[in-house]
Amino acid sequence: MNHVTPGAQMKVRGIHKRFGAFTALNNVSLDIAAGELVCLLGPSGCGKTTLLRCIAGLERQDRGTLYIGDRDISELPPQARDYGILFQSYALFPNLTVEANIAYGLTGGNREASRQRVSEMLELVGLAGSEKKYPGQLSGGQQQRVALARALAPSPSLLLLDEPMSALDARVREHLCTELRQLQRQLGITTLMVTHNQDEAMLMADRIAVMNNGQVEQYARPQEIYDQPATPFVAEFVGQGNWLPFQRSSNSHAQVGGMHMRLADNASTVSSGRLFCRPEAITVNPVVHEENLFPAKVREVTFLGNRCRMSFELEALPGHALLAELAPEAMPRLGSQDIWVALPPQSLQVFA
To answer: Which domains does the chain have, with CATH numbers?
Structure first.
């Protein structure tokens, strides 16, 4: 059963958009491969929803070009752009049945073909038999599935998702994220999703475009975004992190407070700035000697179920709180407030 035709490549070229004196998008370019799921991730006001609305034709860009496949859609009206869209509000018609809501975007076919298509879509999203119900009789998660079925029913080349899970509680959201990702892979439909939730982006995306102040700061796979953030903003916005002020003391070492830290062999050669380190990269009371091993004092330990988060400060950098994450079974090794911590050279990223 061919539910949806495979997705097309999406190209965004030099998109600019201003609202009065405010620049919402500043020369944004992206390539989205056919069948890929890309997340636009960033804080409120960074431009991610404006970019989605420009692609959808709901806003008109001031400059730049948009392509679906080889077709320039930059000046086309929304109904001619061949996409399905799913909003955070679901936007279902409360006075129409589930069947009528899904069939709303189907045109040019006969009634029996439309009914068959609706049945296929409901089976696809796990709501077979719900044709005659009304949106008010469904849970939030079920309404979102109906809205997804409606977006997919016309077999679009591109699926646009605008914060589609934000109105759902955490458990339903995670379950629906997983289901949507599996469905997107099954259908091979090119998908662009807006979210401010980094866990959602990490769980679902093939690639993430981290946006800030109308620009893309980094566009890469989730693991690269997390392990090798390209800018301080990306490092701070995605996940937890530690920052240490430094002065370069040699090609391979930096001075941090009263400490002499070895850096990774491929570290940036800037003379001063900040070192960045993820909490889970720090080793606490290592059983064998490690590089960059320094005395520290525990401030606080928070139990988080599958891990513990420890706040501490280095003796040579008092008043500067840092975080480490460790497995609960490592807790007995703490022993007292006085500990040793190792900051592996390869985990220290250098920013000017």
So the answer is: 10-236 (3.40.50.300), 240-351 (2.40.50.100)
